[in-house]
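Ticket #4471: structure output looks truncated?

Reporter: J.K.
Steps to reproduce: submitted the chain below (117 residues) through the standard prediction queue, then opened the result file.
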Amino acid sequence: MGRKVSDGRSVRVTVPQNTTIEAGKFYLLDGFFGLAVQSVTTGAGETAEVVLNCEQAEYETSQITTTDAFNKGEPVYWDDATKLLTTQEGSGNRLVGRVTQTKDANNVIWFRLGPQV
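Returned output as attached by the reporter:
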C-alpha cells in the first residue's frame, strides 16, 4: 500500500544541537538543501525540527560568497563550511542550482534551485 503524503515542495528535517536556524536563510540538513521557513534554536543535548522549502523554483538571496562573480548561467554550489553559496566547485561543495540573475551592486543574486538527488 502507498499514498501521497505531500507535493514535495518542502521537507521536515532535524536541527542538530547547539544550532541556530534563521527563517529566510539556506541550509543543508539531513542531506536536504533548502530555505528555512521558520527560525529554530537548539541548545546542548537538544534537537528540533525545521521545515526547508526545497521546491525547484527561482530564489533571491544575498547569502553568497561576495568575491565570486555569479554570472548568469553559472552553476551554484553550497559551501557547508561557510554556509554560503559560491560558484566554486571545491571539495565538499554541493551543486544546488544555476544563476538566473547576475550578482548586483548589493551582492544579491537570483538562482534556480535544482532537484534534490
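Triage note (M.O.): checked the attachment and the full C-alpha cell line is present. The mean pLDDT is 96.
Status: closed, working as intended.
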